[in-house]
Amino acid sequence: MVILSAKDGKILARLPLAGSSDGVAFNPSTMEAFSTQGNGTMTIVKEKNATSFEVLQNLKTWPSNGARTVAFDSKTGHLFAMASEALPPPPPPPPPPPGTTPPAGRGGRGGGSVPGSFTIIMVGIK
């Protein structure tokens, strides 16, 4: 996580995350930032003062490939992340016949979600 100064864009800190960040929320009353990662973790970062920050915790939220999107409710101090159980990726397509061009496209990103497995995870902050 890179923390920048809003005044001049100067880098104030670089902190390690437990995975690749997919979402972030900030609680101004506790001066904590929350980063959700696709590997099923949430990194909690605390601002100690205007130029000092530390990782407080790497919280396990959901098995791999879940709980990426995050929202913060300032009234309750709760964080909400959505997740679902992942289906295995589909098998790769057969190769094109000799002398033909394979179809264009982005390719598969995974097998989607198990029907009925959508879950909201609530994390309470004290």
Account of the protein in words:
The protein is an all-beta fold. The protein is 0% helix and 43% strand. It has no helices and nine strands. The mean pLDDT is 87.
Query: Please, what is the oligomeric state?
Result: single chain
Number of strands: 9
Q: Which residues form runs of ≥5 with pLDDT under 50?
A: none
Q: What's the average pLDDT? A: 87
Measured as a percent range, the helix fraction is: under 10%
Structure annotation, total helices: 0
Termini Cα gap: 23 Å
Order of helices and strands: EEEEEEEEE
The share of residues in extended strands comes to: 35-45%
The major beta sheet can be summarized as: 4 strands, antiparallel
What would the principal axes of the Cα set say about the shape? extended
Q: What strand order characterises the main sheet?
A: 3-4-5-6
Rg calc: 19 Å
Q: What structural class should be given to the helix and strand makeup?
A: mainly beta
